[in-house]
Amino acid sequence: MRIGDLGEFGFIDRIKNGCLNRKSGVVAGIGDDCAVFRVPGNLAVLLTTDMLIEDVHFRLSEIPPYFLGRKSLAVSISDIAAMGGTPREALVSIGIPGSIEVVYLDEIYKGLKAIATEYDINILGGDTVLSPDRLVINVALSGEERDDEILYRSGALEGDVIFIAGTLGRSAAGLDLLRNKREFEKKEGLLTAHFDPIPHVWSGRIIASSKLANSMIDISDGLVGDLWHVCKESGVGALIEMENMPIDDNLREYCERYRLDLERFVLYGGEDYVLMGTVATESSDLLRESLKAQDCDYFPIGKMVDGDSIKLRENGGTIRELARSGYDHFSGE
Amino acid sequence: MRIGDLGEFGFIDRIKNGCLNRKSGVVAGIGDDCAVFRVPGNLAVLLTTDMLIEDVHFRLSEIPPYFLGRKSLAVSISDIAAMGGTPREALVSIGIPGSIEVVYLDEIYKGLKAIATEYDINILGGDTVLSPDRLVINVALSGEERDDEILYRSGALEGDVIFIAGTLGRSAAGLDLLRNKREFEKKEGLLTAHFDPIPHVWSGRIIASSKLANSMIDISDGLVGDLWHVCKESGVGALIEMENMPIDDNLREYCERYRLDLERFVLYGGEDYVLMGTVATESSDLLRESLKAQDCDYFPIGKMVDGDSIKLRENGGTIRELARSGYDHFSGE
After folding, report:
1. In chain B, where are the structural domains located?
2. Per the CATH hierarchy, to which homologous superfamily does domain A3-146 belong?
3. Which residue of A has its CA nearest to B93?
4. Considering the domain A153-321, what is its CATH architecture?
5. Over the stretch B273-316, which tens digit does the pLDDT of each residue have?
6. Which residues 94-133 of A have a C-beta within 8 angstroms of B?
7. What single DSSP character describes residue B294?
């Protein structure tokens, strides 16, 4: 059996047993956006790591190195944001092909340091090694949070309102635009969404500190893929409403112009790094007000329901079950 | 300019400015075995990370996967040991070629979990991604230590005795044996040194908690290469004595059998992960006794001296300056 037969999440299930030797203080190990352990003073430390490999996660010909640096750290910052935490200390490992120019690496580090400064993160260390032919970047990042404010994937309850704190599909459209070398007068917004995603630490803090939400995740693998993680970990199903889905104007125009399936970008497009949470119906308005007061978005898009599937109510009213395919690194779905 | 022109340490010097955005509490950033920051309770957190890439750090045809798993974590544990700390929480990222069998990955994780258990480490999380053709493993590891016990590379003083807490050259001999497909009746010890290096956490704790030593490092790049880091960071030179150098019997026999340069293995062989420290002359005997009482080795091999070079007194008494070539990933020295 190869890894492709098992899939990324099958593999994680296979290896996650036997990883904890000191269970005291550990709140979450493998399986959520971050690992969590308690430290003195009602605080918790969050830990996350992301590996980006050339030709799998990025192509040198597509992303300018400054943005590659920013994005390498952004994806880990988003994992901290997804639990409501504040990012703190980063370690950056880089595997460098001998053919890469030092000025190119300078640009990567300029991007890394710029986003680190914006989010008040220290780059405390790393490892610098030779790679035979592909650039590899691994970021490990810690965060901190009051231990009674942390939001997990597993906390969603039947009846909860599902909300997203931003619009979806723009990053995937940016990639589509690049890969197909398409012209589009308003392409900048879509390309920026793809090159320079915004980790929503501030929205995450508002949601977590309000103590109104029951669960949270960041949408990195696409709405349906990540909602499926929430369903699976929480033991409930979901019903989302297409007519409530916020649609970015640029994305709509782009899809109309090239006759592309808008719904597919919104439901399955990855790498938007928008936060998605669930909240009890009676707390939904209050949470919306808390976010709006800080200029943060709040879009209720559906409900957690009994069951073990994700269903979509189409604009015409028809309800159908959605395929769960998020992005799996190995199955290539 | 390519990375090979600059070298690993030249590159690190180039990128290390501008990495700290919150200096409060940070004791050491980029440049030592670990980064260090203070936390409440006179404690410090140590952070380190190591990336291993197939065909640079290991070959699948040479190292059994169980030992590859152990070694991936061992090198980071050794960085924690090098400052006197206790390892705690690990994150493991793995980039997996589609061609690798899942049972092979199971063995890697069996090795990772075994050494984690031996050192009371939690594997708290990680990332699992596709790699186009080479296996990549990145470990990020935290450790902890009382903040008044941490030992740095930069603390060595002129007049200090240089000591090593084990013998050197066995791992390089194991690799030499493998690469040249040599037969040797006692090869097991050398191969084990190469496949399954021991991180010396216990020796490191004794040395650090004694508060007798002035500096410490682990020998991963070879004695001369790592001693040079200590010299450079501490602003002193070193004089080491060949006749005081402990020589492993197996290594001596192996070199005699194949007419190999024993001195080269001892002075320049990497990956032994033996600790090297410096201690004031008047405290040397006391430190030796503390280590011996716990069955740990202590070999005084020279002195820190005025200057900016490393000199060797040969067995005949002649003193000569040593080339500083440790292992540089990019210069390929």
Report:
1. 3-146, 153-321
2. PurM-like, N-terminal domain (3.30.1330.10)
3. A51
4. Alpha-Beta Complex (3.90)
5. 999 999 999 999 999 999 999 999 999 999 999 999 999 999 99
6. 94-96, 98-103, 105-106, 109, 113, 116-117, 120-133
7. T
